# Entry
Amino acid sequence: MQGVGFRPFVFGLAQRHGLGGFVLNDGTGVVIEVEGAVSDLEAFAAALRDEAPSLARVDAIEVEPLTPSGERAFTIAASTAAGRTALIPPDTATCGDCLRELFDPGDRRHRYPFINCTQCGPRFTIVRSVPYDRPNTTMAGFPLCDECRSEYENPADRRFHAEPVCCPVCGPSLSLPLEQAVALLRGGGIVAVKGLGGWHLACSAANEDAVARLRARKHREDKPFALMTNEPELLAHIDAGERELLESRRRPIVLVPRRTGAPVAAAVAPGNPWLGVLLPYTPLHHLLLADFGGALVMTSGNRSDEPIAYDDEEARERLGGIADAFLGHDRPIHRRCEDSILRASFPIRRSRGFAPEALPLPVAAAQPVLAVGAELKSTFCLARRREAFLSPYLGDLDTELAYSAFRTDIELYLSMLGVVAATIAHDLHPEYLSTKWALEQDAALVGVQHHHAHAAACLAEHGETGPALALVFDGTGFGTDGTLWGGELLRCDLSEFERLAHLRPVPLPGGEAAIREPWRMAASYLELAGRPVPFERWTLVRESLHVNAPLSSGMGRLFDAAAALLGLRETVTFEGQAAVELELLAAQTAAEPYAWRFGDGAELIAAVHDDLAAGRPRPAIAAAFHETIATSAAAACAEAGGPDTVVLSGGTFQNLRLAASTRRNLEALGFRVLTHRLVPPNDGGISYGQAAIAAAG
Ligand code: ZN
Ligand code: ZN
Ligand code: FE
# Structure
């Protein structure tokens, strides 16, 4: 890893042991030549591994004896770019030392919004090419002043070879005085703020009008906004694990349970007891929060589901109708990278702070593989030998903006790693733009079934190849029979899969419309179940069964049907919204499962209907529904007769109650259960699964 203070560390170590020689980055890693007494060389080698700086990752040390040349001095030599495998580190939150200087009136960087050092600051998002040296970053246009240069060149300084080092004299500056931005925010205004991997839209988190205006202008109806704060415990209940995630150098958004009476506008997360909270991660954020004196909404600078705006001109164009002012600066962002989102145990979105860190692959790719992912929550993944580089989150690929981001970012990744993709892995869905793009490329193609990719992602992140059973529950994925799948029990390894059980396919009345309008799913299921349909519109919509009603076995649709039947909502504004509300309704209510064998969803909806008609409380019905899916799925695994490992994947498993209950039931039956920890269970993890399958090819 470059730019984490490793060369300065080596320099200091060589000095301590009185060794001569040099250290340099050659693009594949660090090369060190040292000469001196044998005992000193041995002590040096041991310390290399034991005392390495915290951000550095030492994978292997290879030693080769050379003839001494009589060199007494030790130097840091210029980098070379022989290969391009040495990685750029992820962007890292402002460190404690820099934070102290930021608020120290005596420091020459007092209140300087671009303060950084070898342990913190922008990395991935400012790097134009490897090796990671200042001329290859977007800081190239800011020549160091004398003072910064002496820090940069002084091995004893904590800014020794900190590539983005700068100060008020030589570095970037803000495009708007901070006081003006703060005054606007205090007055209920919306301010676009330039971050590390793109622009945010900010407003006061407590100001109902401001948040409502942001929602209206951003065309985002219900999806929760993230909040940036220094005091997360004022807003939410935070356990030790969540606090650790919040404070980690990756600084993700963490989903935490909202405190009742938290000073947060209702419009921040309508009807949702969870809040997405993050701590400030750039010096500019720290200054903004300190001067504003409260929590800020900090949401991606885009219209709903589009990729985040990162180029200044593009931001002014796209966000001009949303923001009242722009708090920008003149340090360009080279790569788009959205905030990451975590629930305590797994990522929902793996982006800033993680990218471009490699994920392991259980089987090495013989040739570089590019896996292009799915359509919603798009990511792609580049596999090189045993390393998989999962891209940041790109949003939904169904907009022209996202599609062009997808193409641009693939080029950036290929050039960063210096590879040409020999193999391209893609989803089987013929209408996904990622599939269409793949089919146009000049490479060997590997088509991967959607749910096989989900299962493979979970296996691969645990370093396993299977065979295993896989419960893959999600909204939609293209099946090998041309219908939509999504309530699947597979037996699979990294090369093949067998579909052992699945939900019985039901017609989606009106196709896509049935996904936006869960009441249509309730109607479709009720009709199959021979129960009355309580929705008046059904008389009209029913006609679509003859015209446009693709078949789906998606678990997401069964959750939608139950949610609509329980009166939670008839239409949704984002994917999974009804299912989330069903989980909230069930909460911790205890309930026995219905007597239901995994398969015919209509029978389960009939049971829900009959309970409701009998006047059973809705939370108990929602709880019974969850328990039924969990126990019946575990029973289906037991019937499969092995193997004894089960992976759980697919967006539906973001439902904590369902995941926990399914795990409990499976473990009671003697199964070993694997769930996601490194990649999202949702479609953001698909490209990694495709890459694992193509690599194992
Ligand atoms: Zn620092
Ligand atoms: Zn300077
Ligand atoms: Fe999926």
The radius of gyration is 27 Å. Residues 95, 97-98, 116-117, 119-120 surround zinc ion (ligand 1) (CB under 6 Å).
